[in-house]
UniProtKB/TrEMBL annotation:
InterPro entries: BTB/POZ_dom, SKP1/BTB/POZ_sf. It comes from the Eukaryota. This is Speckle-type POZ protein. Residues 74-141 form the BTB domain. It comes from Parasteatoda tepidariorum. Gene3D superfamilies: 1.25.40.420, Potassium Channel Kv1.1, Chain A.
Length: 242
């Protein structure tokens, strides 16, 4: 690329007039776009077309968030814990194949315009809808992310499953890794399961003393065997110090 991989902050400060405008640092780059044929185009990040595209995306995101907040012209209600959350069949169907089948067929939910959901909490469903409409979600903690992952699995929103996994992997802890690997195994989220396996293998001494680990061994025998096999194959076990 003929460019340095890193630029020191001190270098930017020394040449502030060159790189900084009004105290802000702007990164300019070029994108080459190919459509599979011989035709291609290069767009610079300071190009007016590029700026317009970015502004359009930002505006679209704001508009979708506004729809999610007010639910104007909603045509279906998701009834969760005696609370009915308004939504739009079009959005739900576009993002979830489960909802798509539900609304395409002559099912009770389609005729009544009410979907009763008994296994998901209100807070989780609100976060789920936030992602459905905007593609974004704010996680409160690992426990809420796990609940959202289960909701994503139920309605087969694969991009949300991936988002939950990306949040959970770097935030794994001795206290929650057993719960995480059980859910990851249940929903077949391979990346998250691999991350949990690696974490358990590296911290097995601390984890093996926890009540969560003992519960996992008791209630998930096949998964436990898989964990031990993974540790034996990928990591060298060190004897405990007396």
């Amino acid at each position: 690329w003929n460019y340095h991989s890193f630029i020191l902050k001190s270098a930017l400060e020394l040449e502030e007039n060159k790189y900084m405008k009004n105290g802000k640092f702007s990164l300019f780059c070029e994108f080459s776009e190919a459509n599979g044929n011989e035709e291609s185009r290069t767009v610079s990040s300071d190009d007016s077309y590029f700026t317009t595209e970015i502004n359009n995306i930002v505006t679209l995101h704001k508009d979708l968030r506004n729809i999610c907040s007010h639910m104007k012209y909603s045509d279906v209600g998701l009834r969760v814990e005696n609370v009915t959350l308004p939504a739009h069949k079009t959005f739900l169907s576009a993002r979830s194949p489960v909802f798509s089948v539900m609304f395409d067929q002559d099912m009770v939910e389609n005729r009544s315009d009410i979907v009763d959901i008994t296994d998901i909490e209100v807070a989780t469903m609100k976060s789920f809808l936030e992602f459905i409409y905007t593609g974004n979600v704010i996680f409160q903690d690992g426990a809420s992310a796990l609940k959202l992952l289960l909701a994503a699995e139920k309605y087969q929103v694969l991009s949300l499953k991936e988002t939950c996994a990306e949040y959970l992997i770097p935030s794994l802890s001795v206290e929650d890794v057993c719960d995480v690997i059980v859910v990851a195994d249940k929903v077949n989220q391979k990346k998250l399961k691999k991350g949990a396996l690696d974490y358990i293998a590296k911290h097995i001494t601390e984890i093996s003393n926890s009540s969560e680990w003992l519960e996992l061994l008791k209630t998930h025998t096949e998964l436990s065997a898989e964990i031990f096999s993974y540790i034996a194959t990928h990591f060298e076990l060190k004897p405990r110090k007396n």
